[in-house]
Amino acid sequence: MGHAVTPWLHILAVAVWVGPQFFLFIAAVPAIRTIDDMRVRANVMRTITTRFGWMAWAALAVIVLTGISNIFQEADDFDHLLDFD
Ligand code: HEM
To answer: Which of 2, 27, 52, 66 has the fewest CB neighbours in a 10 Å radius?
Structure first.
């Protein structure tokens, strides 16, 4: 079962890492640019990027760890490529 879990976690973490970047650039940044007060604008931007930043770093850690695990699983599969019994 472990074989199915890490590629799944890998792709889930990629979605968590990449998805919010679409939200930020398509929706959040244009919305924040409508704030006239530069101090408020900077504060809102900082709060959003800091909070998403934590999630992105956590997701990246999961991507790297599950990616490495995927490599070992692929290597296992290659080892057994010619086992016909
Ligand atoms: C240290 C970094 C990474 C390593 C070692 C790694 C390794 C791997 C391996 C070995 C697979 C094949 C899994 C399988 O078929 O069972 C895989 C699949 C995949 N990886 Fe990564 N990966 C890394 C980072 C990333 C990043 C940064 C992204 C995207 C932003 C990414 C996106 C994907 C996707 C979409 C798949 C599925 C593709 C498929 O199954 O054909 N990976 N990764």
So the answer is: 2
- Ligand 1 centroid to 51 CA: how many Å? 25
Query: Which pLDDT tens digit goes with each residue over 66-84?
Result: 999 998 888 877 777 667 6
Considering only CA atoms, which residue is closest to atom 4 of ligand 1? 67
Which residue minimizes the CA distance to atom 29 of ligand 1? 14
CB neighbourhood size of 51 (10 A): 11
pTM, two decimals, is: 0.82
Considering only CA atoms, which of 27, 22, 21 is closest in space to residue 52?
21
* DSSP single-letter state for residue 85: -
